[in-house]
Amino acid sequence: MTAVPLDPAPRVPPEPAAPRPGALLTVTGADRPGVTARLFGALAQGGDGVPPVEVVDVEQVVVHGQLVLGVVVGALPTHEGPVDGTTFLAALGRLADGVARATGVRVEVQAASGRGGRGTPAGRPHHVILLGRPVPPSAVAGAATAIAGVGGNIDAIRRLSDHPVTSLELTVSGAGATELRTALAAVAASTGADIAVEQVGLARRSKRLIVLDVDSTLVRGEVIDELAARAGRAAEVARITAAAMNGELDFAESLRARVATLAGLPVEVLDEVREHLELTPGARTLIRTLQRLGFRCGIVSGGFSQITDPLAASLGLDFAAANTLEVADGRLTGGLEGEIVDRAGKARALARFAAEHGIPLEQTVAVGDGANDLDMLNAAGLGIAFNAKPVVREQAHTALNQPYLDAVLQVLGFTRDEVMDATTPSSSG
């Protein structure tokens, strides 16, 4: 006879654990030493009906001497059984009153989830950086409205810098990068503030290499326009330059046409133009800060190596790529030597520079202003359009319209204090 297996006993699902009561304690008032220690000391000591608790979440900020401290705690189970939520809040209320009397601050208590802390909407959080001179309230209001409009939530706000530009960093959850950038672009256009968006994570602080365009980025003005002025062809060349930078002309074709107008200029003119170059404000601070933070720094230019190589040497840069003007008998021939560094060539130069130092492209930064920079900006982990043409601002990862090149540091998340620490020689050295 074949044995018939007995049906297994049905599994009885375990009883769900009783929810633990939680509370949010909010401390506000004039900041002074010992406030945080007093609050947590009281929570650790318990007594007067306060059960053992676990710290679920903490956030503290001091704004112009005023403290805001939020602490979420959850009640731990005791041998007497589950903790009653109403009794728990009442006991914490008495504890809060004692801390407030001892420290002179205000402590409010309200119910909160005992586990999980602040909500975490779906999606990786992002940093939204507002920059301006100054940052108008309309920019903050507009950014907050736009963020809410795409389902985002502002989790935190901090100031990154107050000089030479004011910059604020908002940590935003619940919205995607594309939606944020689209919504905030209109706010930037209407308020005049710069607004950048970057994903929160290690990638932001893992950047290790930066390349800068030269003309109208690292230095003010266009070198070829200065050379053309000395050849009496300034207006003609300026028109070609503007069309090329706006993406209306092929860069290589426009470069050859402009260089042809320089035929016959004595080579000494290059030295004259180089000596009169004016760095963009903040350029030295940007480079010096990043060098001391361990960055590799270089320039990639559609200009000329006779100008850029000495410039790179004077700034202590690690890399320089540019076109080379042909010279014969002490005069410019109106031609070029070697491979042209055009739009595609700039991206190749960035990749070559990164490969030489074993740095992945996602850990690189590129800064430029013209259409011939777009391939380089998009190849880098972070491409920044600096005082750029509209076509470049629309396609780059982010855009800066401030007159200071060191505002790039705030886009990278560095505070003014960190910049000062990096640029101030150590007293112990």
Give an overview in words.
Its EC number is 3.1.3.3. Keywords: Amino-acid biosynthesis, Hydrolase, Magnesium, Metal-binding, Serine biosynthesis. Residues 126-198 form the Phosphoserine phosphatase ACT domain. Its cofactor is Mg(2+). Residues 7-19 have a biased composition (Pro residues). The protein has 429 residues and is α/β, with parallel strands linked by helices. The protein is elongated. The chain contains 16 helices and 15 strands. It has 3 domains: 21-113, Alpha-Beta Plaits (2-Layer Sandwich), CATH 3.30.70; 126-204, ACT domain (Alpha-Beta Plaits); 209-396, 3-Layer(aba) Sandwich (Rossmann fold). Strand 2 (53-63) and strand 3 (66-75) form a beta hairpin. Helix 7 runs antiparallel to helix 8 (251-260), helix 9 packs across helix 11 (305-315) and helix 10 (283-292) crosses helix 16 (416-423).
Summarize this structure as a short list of keywords or feature phrases.
429 residues; alpha/beta; Alpha-Beta Plaits; Rossmann fold; seven-stranded mixed sheet; four-stranded antiparallel sheet; 37% helix; elongated
In short:
This protein is α/β, with parallel strands linked by helices and 429 residues long.
Tell me the count of domains: 3
- Residue windows where pLDDT falls under 50 for at least 5 positions: 114-122
Average pLDDT taken over every residue: 89
CATH architecture of the largest domain: 3-Layer(aba) Sandwich
Q: Rg, please?
A: 30 Å
Distance between the termini: 93 Å
Q: Name the strands of the widest sheet in spatial order.
A: 12-11-10-9-13-14-15
Largest sheet, if any?
Answer: 7 strands, mixed
Q: Could you name the CATH homologous superfamily of the largest domain?
A: HAD superfamily/HAD-like
- β-strand amount: 25-35%
Protein name: phosphoserine phosphatase
Domain Phosphoserine phosphatase ACT: 126-198
Active site: 213, 215
InterPro entries: HAD-like_SerB, HAD-like_sf, HAD_sf, PSP, PSP_ACT
